[in-house]
Amino acid sequence: MADDRAPAAPFDRVVLIFNPTKAEMATRIHDVQRDLGTDLPGLPIELLPTDFAGHARDLARSVAVAGSPLIVSVSGDGGYNEVVNGVMDVPATRAVCTVLPAGNANDHHRSRPVRPFTEAIRESRVRRIDLLRITFRGAHREQVQYAHSYVGFGLTPLMAIGIEKGGKGKILELISVARTLSGLRPFELVRADGATAQFDSLILANISRMAKYGRVSESNHPDDGQFEVVTLPHAGRWKMALMTLRAVTLGLGHQPSVSSYAFTTRNAVPCQIDGEVVHVQAGTHVLVESARGALATI
User: Fold this and answer.
1) In the list 158, 234, 246, 276, which could disulfide-bond 186, CB 3.0-4.6 Å?
2) pLDDT on residue 8
C-alpha cells in the first residue's frame, strides 16, 4: 500500500544538492537560481554542495526531517540515487524529490514526461512513483538500498566498469563494450525454489530505457507496483552481442513483470544500481521488491 507523505501545501523551500567539482556545475546552479528567482520570487532556495561520495545521502536525510522541502538533485542517476536513499531514511518525511540532469547517465530523467522545471514547481502536482527496494543479506549483515530506475547483474555493471576505464565518447565506449563482451563470464544464481541457473545478464528495471543499452522493455509505468525482469541465460558472447545490438536498435520487446524477485549468489558478481557499481559477495541472498508509491516527486 502506498503511504501519503507528500505535502498538501506548496513547498516551503527548494534545496539544490550538487557536486561542485563537476565541469560547468557553477554555471548550471547559477542558471537554476536565476530561473527560480524570476518565475517563483519569494521561494527560499538553499544550496548544498557535496564534499565526498555518499554525502548527498547525508544532506538529503538532514533536509527531509523538517518542513515540506522540494529536494532537487542536480546530478546524474548516481547522485539522484543518493538523494532518494537519504529521503527514504526518514520514514515520516514530507519531502518531495526531483532531478535536474547534470551527469553522464540520466536514464531516470529521460524516462519522465518533459515539463519546464519552474512550471512543475509552480503547479505543485506531486505524484508518487515506485522504487526498487534491494535487500542484501549475508552471513553477518543485512543492507537495504533503494533504486529509482534499475538493478543490473553481470553484463551491465561490467560494461559500466569497462566504459569508465576506457574513457567517454562513442568510439571509446564501443571499444570498451567489445572488450567487455570478449571477457564476459557467466554468474550462477540459486532461485527461491532451489533451482540454479547461469546468466550472462540480469536486469530488474523500473524504467523502459537505459541510455547505454537502449530500450530494455516496452513498459513505462513506474507506479504500477511492478518491475520488469530482463534475463539472458548463459549462451555465449555472440548471443550477448546480438542482444545488445537489439536493445540499442529495435528494443528488447515485452518482458515479464513481477512485484518481487529473489535469489542467492553462488559466486561473487558485480551489481549496478542506478549507474553505480557495487560488488556482491558469494552466498549473498538478494531480494528485490517493488516499493509501491514510495517516492513523492514532481
Assistant:
1) 234
2) 41
Inter-CA distances, 8 with 39, 103, 150, Å: 21, 31, 30
pLDDT digits (tens, 9 = 90+) for 36-90: 999 999 899 999 999 999 999 999 999 999 999 999 999 988 999 999 999 999 9
Give per-residue pLDDT as tens, 142-178.
999 999 999 989 876 555 444 444 445 554 555 555 5
Long-range contacts of 282-286 (CB under 8 A, 24+ apart): 283/138, 283/139, 284/136, 284/137, 284/138, 285/135, 285/136, 285/137, 285/138, 286/134, 286/135, 286/136, 286/137, 286/262
- Report the C-alpha gap between 78 and 55 in whole angstroms: 12
Angle at 268 between CA 267 and CA 273, to 5 degrees: 130
173 neighbors 163 (Cβ within 8 angstroms):
yes
Instruction: Tell me the pTM.
Output: 0.82
Query: What grid cell was written down for 249?
Result: 536498435
